[in-house]
Amino acid sequence: LATYLGRGSSVRLVESEEIGIVGVGEASVPHLKTFNGEVLGIDEAEFLTATQGTFKLGIEFRDWGRIGDAYMHGFGRIGRSMGPLPFHQFWLKRFLAGHAPGIGAYTLQTVAAPQGRFTVGGSDAPAGSPLADFAYAYHFDAGRYARFLRTLAERRGATRTEGRIVDVVRRAADGFVEAVVLEGGERIEGDLFIDCSGFRALLIGQALQVNYVDWRQWLPCDRAMAVPSANAGPPTPYTRATARAAGWQWRIPLQHRTGNGYVYASEHLSDDEAAATLLAHLDGEALAEPRALRFTTGMRREVWSA
């Protein structure tokens, strides 16, 4: 908003350092590169330095089909089509005849990731080269990224206010959020309010009473256990997702540590069992006690409410 609204607008962020953040979302997909670079104009090296970030070429899935299986989902285009004929048609014919390897061999990211190789590619690559539109994403420290974006927003004109919101004032005429009231009594009015309060849903849930649609019958995982660990070697340019008895475990390598977590269904696993499983499958020494998170999978019936 601070980047695009320009003159005549005023952007104000209200947040409290006393309220913790989830801070476990450390892996991304290539859209974040577009958002950082093309939308916000962020220098990539500056972003990676500030967030202790690393590069990500894809996601390795372990034990999902059966124990011992491994599948690398690499980002980017698979092969090159010939005119109107898609690449996978040629590959499928050759593969069924026994003359072609698995389709992952035709994605540069899928081949490079297990070898720990990486390149940023670029527009100076020859036409038709897989480096010309080389897709990749990032791993990053979510807390550091939030602070980085806050500083960027303030440099571009946004104003930050420290404080807890204790009341939400709605207009009598139409129920629109008119103002929020801080613990110290300050009243902050606005024309547009964006609720970034996470699971609390302070505005859209508590004030505007927009119902939450529970999806647990389809997505039963409702807990997560997270813990950082020491790096056990050079960071791998991919996220690892390993299937477990009641969910799945993530491994996300950063410059200064590795992020780990176990997402699971509490109906089938206790918190203590989840923590024990997570700690037993770390590549390096745990740097803290596992932190438990609770959530309900689903969505708001409306994402916009006036």
Give a brief rundown of this model.
This protein is of the alpha+beta class. Helix content is 20%, strand content 25%.
Descriptive report:
- This protein is of the alpha+beta class.
- Helices cover 20% and strands 25% of the residues.
- It has seven helices and 16 strands.
- The relative contact order is 0.16.
- The model has no long low-confidence stretch (mean pLDDT 93).
How big is the Rg? 23 Å
Strand tally, please?
16
- Contiguous runs where pLDDT drops below 50 for at least 5 residues: none
Shape descriptor: globular
Q: Assembly state here? A: single chain
Distance from N terminus to C terminus (CA atoms, Å) equals 19 Å
Sheet-strand content, in percent, reads 15-25%
How many helices? The count is 7
Strand order of the largest sheet: 4-3-12-13-14-11-15
Structural class: alpha+beta
| Residue-averaged pLDDT | 93
Largest sheet: 7 strands, mixed
* Overall helicity: 10-25%
Order of helices and strands: EHHEEEHHEHEEEEHEEEEEHEE
